[in-house]
Amino acid sequence: MTVMVDEPLTQGDSGLLDRFLALDTPEGLRAELIDGEIVVSPPPGSRHERAIARIIRQVMLHSSTAFDFSGNMGLVLPSDGGLPNYVIPDGTFAPLDLDVYDNDDSWSEPDGIAMVVEVTSSRPRADREGKRQAYARAEIPLYLLVDRDEKRVTLFSRPDGEDYARTDQVTVGNGLALPEPFGFELDTTDFV
């Protein structure tokens, strides 16, 4: 669902940002500011969470680097000229030795994040486009998108400041190579 504001606001309107940051989001809901729009999402379903759990398990068991994981880290990301994006990815991985999650901030810069993960839900367009571009502008090295509607898993890499220059995609059920610092083939069975 999308929360509507009571008067038109432009992307550059600091009033929208103030309203977003002041939101008292009910427990279990996720509020994000994406491309100048406040988006409130319901809790994900079981299949969504199963895909995330499968990814976490494989990364922890097979990666060549030890990682920390967060499923609730709020990130402040650059936009294309308007308000910053405030997003909460389904998952973030950061090398354990960087200790990225050692703060109490609700919203953090993405420094040290090696990969973000999104599993499509009620707003797949935001995951496919808006968030992808925001992650690329923030120079997050890898973006893993599990597109449940399309039954595809896509790894975006080589951010160029506006988008990702490389896209590797497989149909669910096939392996997808994750480059270093992960360094293993992700089994996408049971992702949808």
Automatic annotation (TrEMBL):
Any one GO molecular function term: endonuclease activity
Residue ranges of domain Putative restriction endonuclease in the record: 18-187
InterPro entries noted in UniProt: Nuclease_put_TT1808, Restrct_endonuc-II-like, Uma2
Keywords: Endonuclease, Hydrolase, Nuclease
Keyword Nuclease (UniProt): yes
TM ranges: none
Protein name, entry field: Endonuclease, Uma2 family (Restriction endonuclease fold)
Organism the protein comes from: Actinomadura madurae
